[in-house]
Design a protein that fits this description.
Layout lengths: L4 H4 L3 H17 L5 H20 L11 H13 L12 H36 L5 E6 L2 E7 H26 L2 E2 L15 H8 L3 E2 L3 H6 L2 H27 L7 E2 L6 E2 L7 E2 L1 H24 L14 H24 L1 E2 L1 H8 L6 H10 L4 H18 L13 H9 L14 H16 L4
Parallel strand pairs: 3-4
Antiparallel strand pairs: 1-2, 5-8, 6-7
Helix pairs in contact: 2-3, 2-5, 2-7, 3-4, 5-6, 5-11, 5-16, 6-9, 6-16, 9-10, 9-11, 10-11, 13-14
Bound molecules: arginine.
Length: 436
Amino acid sequence: MNTSLGFDRRLWPQDLRGSRAHARMLAAAGVLSPAERDELLRGLDLVEAELAGGTFPFSENDEDIHMAVERRLTELIGPVGGKLHTARSRNDQVATDMALFVRDEAGEAVKRIDALARTLVAVAEQHVDVALPGYTHLQRAQPVYLAHHLLAYVWMLLRDRDRFAFVASRSVAALPLGAGALAGVNFATDRGMVAEELGFDHVAPNSIDAVSNRDFVLDYLGAAATCLTHLSRLGAELVLWSSSEFGFVRLPDAWSSGSSIMPQKKNPDAAELLRAKAPRVVGSLAGFYGVLHALPLTYNKDMQEDKEPLFDAVDTLTVSLEAAEGMIRGAEFDEERMAAAASDDLIAATDIADLYVKRGMPFREAHGIVGGLVREAVAAGIPLRELRSEHLDEEARALLERSSWLESKDSEGGTASGRVRAQLAAARAALASAPP
Ligand code: ARG
């Protein structure tokens, strides 16, 4: 129950980074001799080689990664190993390891999100003039260009990228190490030196807050939950679009699987999983809020429950971003199926209503009239342009024939191809600039 080694061994790179900085600082502050420092650094190299090579002898008695490293260090270099923990507690040590881990992984997330967004932009660029229906309520609503639809995800991902960039820079700006157990330490340490070596912006100004704080875990989980929620919508659309009913896309074989008994089927497994992943991270976020909620200051063992949800979120996000990128890169869009679905002239109903509005009719009235026309056409089983009605004069019929429904959406942010090209350029520029 008490042990966390089964999962926190994953923190060893961060734990060693923190320990090296601590040892160097202790020597600079005169707490350790230069020879002791060098011996500790040599020992930490040996420990690192074992951990990286998979030969590190973990023991049943190691409660967590911090104790395992210290125990092994002392086995390898003798009693001087016991000096590493001078002016330090596992409370400020674990907070520092976790902050470093969150910073590393938030940086990874920024890169992976960037890669997916770039792939989406490249695929969008190849489909600037491919029309498909845009949907509301999953009913055909107004046609849009495929590039426009794909770019919607790019803007979501750019916001996600910014959120992770914030986590990597601001959420983990303050160094916990040096806070000791909770009140500070009995040595004249130089925390600024440690902060600088470990890449923190500043030293946590309050030792109590330093060891109690796990906001950066909440922030990572929150950013991951939102990003995965975006990916779940992409996954859901890929599932729909790859069905025979839609037939808009063929997903790459590497991201699909055959049915064990129905030879004609190709299942969009990866897209379905993409659709399903977000709730577990949303659950982890809610769960970890529960852990921190009403927790008295300062460190409490409850906080060890930060690790599994965070590690799971990191792995879930990584695999989901990879899958999304692979599926988008290998997707084959059926441009004819999409165009056919988009050419249903009922989809131009809004354009006819707008024609009446431009002639001075109130929008509500125009909406009512065109709604009536649509009902008549559907009841008669004919396209709108074949309907005989006093409300469909020459100009309105021309609108139906002209297939001009996309190019007329030439408002800022609209789907007209000029606007989509401008949007592509804007997305490229946003990707080229570093997140704030
Ligand atoms: N394994 C512990 C954790 O993850 C490390 C800190 C333990 N500190 C303590 N005072 N028991 O939270």
